[in-house]
């Protein structure tokens, strides 16, 4: 990206190395792990069982969950040694948090309300050029190979492992950023107005 000198061929690695971690994250990132992150509501639709099984079977995943926990089940994730529940974080810290992660996740249960939603967090994740692993949300079908999908713990973990190296892939990062920009509200509004 021309606006960010020094990013060269390894955009994601350079961004992660140079991006200042938010103060509340200092000392909480485990070295030598695959950093997995989530930002958003942690409510009844959050797939606690899936993520718990992924964390237990993959001790080399360093999982960071940011957001208000409004359901009881997800609270048990905080008892796992490789999962950190950060609670709500300042909105201004979200991009810097994203940049500290290798993979960002959308672990939602496929409930009717979730099947009908367009997960805006995918665009946010893509804008910071981080690969996303998600459960099979129908609205993400149009993203094609830009999103990694899985619905059981073994496959979800395998997709995290498959996606993690792409955090350092400049070409993939640019594809993600382009997708995010192409789906910005200003472009969507222009498309809708053109249809009217």
Shape: globular
Low-pLDDT runs = 1-18, 187-193
Strand order of the largest sheet: 3-2-1-4-5-6
Number of strands: 6
Order of helices and strands: HEHEEHEHHEEHHH
Write the layout of secondary structure elements.
Layout: H1 11-18, E1 34-39, H2 48-57, E2 61-66, E3 83-87, H3 94-100, E4 103-106, H4 112-115, H5 120-127, E5 132-134, E6 147-149, H6 153-163, H7 170-182, H8 185-195
Parallel strand pairs: 1-2, 1-4, 2-3, 4-5, 5-6
Helix pairs in contact: 2-6, 5-7
Structure description:
With 196 residues, the protein is α/β, with parallel strands linked by helices. It has helices at residues 11-18, 48-57, 94-100, 112-115, 120-127, 153-163, 170-182, 185-195; strands at 34-39, 61-66, 83-87, 103-106, 132-134, 147-149. A 6-stranded parallel sheet has the order 3-2-1-4-5-6, sandwiched between helices. The longest helix has 13 residues, at 170-182. The termini are far apart. Residues 1-18 and 187-193 have low confidence and may be disordered.
Structure, briefly:
Helices cover 37% and strands 14% of the residues. By secondary structure, it is α/β, with parallel strands linked by helices.
Task: List descriptors.
alpha/beta, 196 residues
